[in-house]
Known about the structure:
This protein is mainly beta. The chain contains 2 helices and 13 strands.
Amino acid sequence: MLLLKPGLRLYKAALDRAGQEDLRDELRVLLREAPLFRPRMPRSGKEFSVRMSNCGPLGWVSDISGYRYQACHPETGRPWPPMPESILRLWRAYAECAREPDACLINHYDETARMGPHQDRDEADFSAPILSLSLGDSCLFRYGGERRRDPSRTIRLDSGDIVVFGGPARLMFHGVDRTLPESSTLLDPPGRINLTLRRAK
Ligand code: MD6
Ligand code: FE
């Protein structure tokens, strides 16, 4: 484990290649039930470059009216599929939180997608951490402080890496500057998937 700063833990290669392949295959089935959709920014309606889906009781969505957690897919109207047991096991092993996650956001990046600096603050209780797992192409992940203008650092996240944001790092600004195309053979078509497990309510 690498403590990047208080509350911010990085576990390199937490999931080995076989574990990544099993999870990839589970996600392929899950994304047939809950297809990736392209969210829009509140107010402006501008499209995200990342596509998203969710699993678990609640899912994070963004559209012209705002950001929120909701129980159903915005396009199919169906409930989100259950969280795979394999990702609940990762939470139990790495999150250091006795409560279980009730939402898992699935972000999909093609070679041009990015995620601007943001804080995750739509959850009811910031005492629970967020656990992030990267799959597929590597990315350059930027994290800073609690204010947008705070200095930031960039690290490379590779397939199988887990980052846990908790305690004093829970409300830190972070984003994905870019992915590194052709850095992984895990996904076909290629790209990057990031799972973030949260307690929304
Ligand atoms: C990503 N991650 O890695 C974007 N949010 O694709 C996040 O936005 C994130 O990694 C909250 C906690 C951990 C994260
Ligand atoms: Fe985030």
